[in-house]
Amino acid sequence: MDRVRKLTGAEPLLTKGFTGKGITAAILDSGIYPHPDLKERIIDFRDFLNGQTGCYDDYGHGTHVAGILAGNGKLSRGRYRGIAPDCRLLPVKVLNRRGNGSRQDILRGIEFVIATREQYHTRILNISVGTLEEGKDDEELIQAVETAWDAGLVVVAAAGNLGPGKESITSPGSSRKIITVGASDDERKEEFFKRSRIQPGYSGRGPTCACIVKPELTVPGTGIVSCNARYASTRRAYTVKSGTSMATPVVSGAAALLLSLHPDLSNLDVKMHMCESAVDLKLPGSRQGWGFLRIDRLLR
Question: Has this prediction a pTM greater than 0.85?
Answer without folding.
Answer: yes
